[in-house]
């Protein structure tokens, strides 16, 4: 039974059911399905079938693995989703039921090893990325204060206060119409403003964000090295 539940084909079938469940959940959000009671009932039944399928899978795993089942964080994650889905289903709380119905899509992470690897990389990168986040916040704060003091009176829509300056700088960093909407009108009033915008983009986009990419690549190499041992 253990070989069966952990076999490649069984995992493929489970992944297919998870994807099918995700499609059913997406269909239930379509207006054409919502307006048709019969279609809604069909997709709800299919969603319920998927839930019972996951419950059977959980029971089979418990029988096959016994106490070893609880040593895997992914198994505990699957069990939590299934049990919470059933409890909300029988409890009649529609909002909670919908929440866990959507969260069941996350079961793909526990079925596909490649997705587990990506999550491991993200988890390993979090501490370093958090430190870089502090650096970005400090840069943002300095430039937001400068922008408010230098351009606030002439351009209150974008630099009227600290909050607006923060949001404007985020727009500049993402490149969302920053040149035509923000930079050029400001430079027309303050010719030296180009140095403000160019230096901010260089620091945030080309230096700090590239450091984030470097941290992620380093985490990938560390995890691959650990798995190779």
What topology emerges from the helices and strands here?
Elements: H1 2-5, H2 8-28, H3 31-34, H4 37-65, H5 73-91, H6 94-103, H7 108-111, H8 113-151, H9 156-159, H10 162-174, H11 178-189, H12 193-228
Helix pairs in contact: 2-4, 4-5, 5-6, 8-10, 8-12, 10-11, 10-12
Could you characterize what this model shows?
This protein folds into 2 domains: 2-111, Up-down Bundle (Four Helix Bundle (Hemerythrin (Met), subunit A)), CATH 1.20.120; 116-228, Helix Hairpins. Helix 2 runs antiparallel to helix 4 (37-65) and helix 4 (37-65) crosses helix 5. The chain is 85% helix and 0% strand. The model has no long low-confidence stretch (mean pLDDT 84). The protein has 229 residues and is mainly alpha-helical. It is built from 12 helices and no strands. The longest helix is centred in the middle third of the chain and has 39 residues, at 113-151.
Strand composition percent? under 5%
Average pLDDT score: 84
Total of helices = 12
Outline the biggest β-sheet: none
How far do the termini sit from each other? Answer: 29 Å
- Name the helicity range: over 70%
Write the element-wise H/E pattern from the N-terminal end onward.
HHHHHHHHHHHH
| Beta strand count | 0
Task: Return residue spans where pLDDT drops below 50 for at least 5 consecutive residues.
Answer: none
Overall body shape = elongated
Q: What count of structural domains? A: 2
CATH topology of the largest domain: Helix Hairpins
CATH C-level label of the largest domain:
Mainly Alpha
